[in-house]
Amino acid sequence: MGKKVFVIDVTKCNGCHNCQIVCKDEHVGNDWSPIAKPQPEIGQFWIELTEKVRGTVPKVKVAYRPHLCMHCDKAPCMDACPVEGCIYKRDDGLVIIDADKCTGCRLCVDACPYENVIWFNEDLNIAQKCTGCAHLLDDGWSEPRCADACPTLALRLMDEDEAKALIGKAEVWRPELKKEVEPRVYYIGLPKKFIAGTVYDPKEEEVVIGATVTLTAKGGKTQTATTDAYGDFWFEDLKDGLYDLEIKSGKKVKKFAALDTAEADINLGDIPLI
């Protein structure tokens, strides 16, 4: 059995919540011991769709990110568990908490560096999390319920060798943990920062179409955009840092210095070009 990885393309996720819904359908009221005992109807999301709203009206972007267990190769939960064989890694790479062996010590919950991944079931006195629907994979399924239900193919469970090209352009969630835990969930298109605005001529009381907008990063790298039919311009997928911006139309020039994307996306709003 080859090792598996989750590959999640955030640019394809439309926020339908199918993954979250079918996870509940598969696990609430169903006992798949020893891989998983029933998931509580409320209070736990073994896969959870997080929403990130960026910018300010009217320059707003929304992105959705499915969040689940990272099935780490160096899983801190495995190291923290005092019960031999309770938390283990399968040959396919999935990390499982044996529901029959768990004693409810909660050490794995505390050890996991990711938020809302390992949950504690007070009624059953056990820790629980995403299993990758290992019980279905063992029964011949090629993917878990969440991936099967995804209408845009944003969420996929793939053979690691097959996914190499995608992994090469993907990122992990919280990259500072990558070497420490070696997660097996990869994201494509995680949102970066943007700088946007609308250019208008206050004298003519009209938007300025076709103005040249030049963005210069601190290191000197430049990007150029042209205002559209609504006077809008966008610079997307920007790294955190300082940027200078110049807007030019004919002899009219407007400049902004040291725009800082470290804290948030930047909507410059309506910009008069005088």
- What percentage of amino acids are in beta strands? 35-45%
Number of distinct beta strands:
17
Structural class: mainly beta
Stated plainly, the CATH topology of the largest domain is called Alpha-Beta Plaits
Please characterize this protein's 3D structure.
The protein is mostly beta strands and 274 residues long. It folds into two domains: 4-188, Alpha-Beta Plaits (2-Layer Sandwich), CATH 3.30.70; 193-272, Immunoglobulin-like (Sandwich). Helix content is 14%, strand content 36%. The chain has seven helices and 17 strands. Strands 10, 11, 14 and 17 form a four-stranded mixed beta sheet that branches. Strands 13-12-15-16 form a four-stranded antiparallel beta sheet, with no helix packed on it. Strand 2 (47-56) and strand 3 form a beta hairpin. The longest helix is centred in the N-terminal third of the chain and has 10 residues, at 18-27. The chain starts with a strand and ends with a strand. The relative contact order is 0.17. The model has no long low-confidence stretch (mean pLDDT 97).
Short description:
Helices cover 14% and strands 36% of the residues. The protein is mainly β.
Task: Show the helix and strand layout.
Elements: E1 4-9, H1 18-27, E2 47-56, E3 59-68, H2 76-80, E4 87-89, E5 95-97, H3 107-111, E6 119-121, E7 126-128, H4 134-138, H5 145-149, E8 155-159, H6 164-168, H7 178-181, E9 185-188, E10 193-201, E11 206-207, E12 212-217, E13 222-226, E14 232-238, E15 242-249, E16 252-260, E17 266-272
Parallel strand pairs: 1-9, 10-17
Antiparallel strand pairs: 1-8, 2-3, 4-5, 6-7, 10-11, 10-14, 12-13, 12-15, 15-16
